[in-house]
Structure formats: structure tokens, C-alpha cells
Amino acid sequence: QVQLVESGGGLVQAGGSMRLSCAASGRFTSIDVMAWYRQAPGKQRESVARISSGSTTNYADSVKGRFTISRDSAKNTVFLQMNNLKAEDTAVYYCNAVIRLSHYSTPRNYWGQGTQVTVSS
């Protein structure tokens, strides 16, 4: 059973910083892409940032220059450092990972349970 467990959400003032973590556990062979998504009330879930197994990163335009995604492959963990937070960053943040359960299996998509980030203005 593969699990993604997020931590680090909470309440922060506008202009502040916050760091999210997500650790994958269970039995699997490898993790391909790891990513962060978010969903604000009344809106669709959107991609925030993603990082490949080779550490190539991509960001949504709305967070470029403020958020940094990184990963510790040895610990199967992905991080999201969020700086200069704005009220519009308020959302539930979800960790996502594409994971191979074995060398011959098709990669599967896994999601964390979500962590609330609230930015007060």
C-alpha cells in the first residue's frame, strides 16, 4: 500500500513563508514525477509545481519566483518552499507522485490527503 503523507500547512500572514513536505511510503520500485497541486474553494484543482526524477522543475506562472519545489530521492520526499505568500495562495495543497510498484508495472498516480494553507491579508 503506497501512501503520500503531507505536512507543513497552516495559517500564515501575507508576505510570509511556509514549507510543505510530502513523504511516500510503502512498497514500490521508483518514483517518477512528484508534484504539488492546489484547490481553492469553488475552483478546480490546479498544478502548482512539478519535479522530475532528474530534478527538472516546472511552475505555474502564478507562483514563479516565489515557490521552489525540491526532492530528496533517498527519502522519497518532495518539498514546496513558499515565499512571499499572497491571499490568493490560500487553498488545500495536494501532493502527487507517479510511482512504479515494480520494474515491469505501469506507473500509477497517487495523491496525498491534502493540507490546508491559509494566507491572511
Task: Give short descriptive properties of this protein.
121 residues; single chain; seven-stranded mixed beta sheet; mainly beta
Structure commentary:
Helix content is 0%, strand content 56%. By secondary structure, it is mainly beta. A hairpin with a 5-residue loop joins strand 5 and strand 6 (57-59). The chain is elongated. The chain contains no helices and 11 strands. Strands 2, 4, 5, 6, 9, 10 and 11 form a 7-stranded mixed beta sheet that branches. The mean pLDDT is 97.
The gross shape turns out to be elongated
Q: Strand fraction band?
A: over 45%
As a whole number of angstroms, the C-alpha radius of gyration is: 14 Å
- The amount of helix comes to under 10%
Main β-sheet: number of strands, strand sense, barrel status? 7 strands, mixed
**Tally of DSSP helical segments:** 0
Which residue ranges are poorly predicted, with pLDDT under 50 across at least 5 consecutive positions?
none
Mean pLDDT over the residues: 97
In sequence order, what are the helices and strands, one letter per element? EEEEEEEEEEE
Spatial gap, N to C terminus: 40 Å
How many strands in all? 11
The assigned structural class equals: mainly beta
Short description:
The protein is mainly β and 121 residues long. The protein is built from no helices and eleven strands.
Chain-wise SSE layout:
Elements: E1 3-7, E2 10-13, E3 18-25, E4 30-39, E5 46-51, E6 57-59, E7 67-72, E8 77-82, E9 91-100, E10 108-111, E11 115-120
Parallel strand pairs: 2-11
Antiparallel strand pairs: 1-3, 3-8, 4-5, 4-9, 5-6, 7-8, 9-10, 9-11
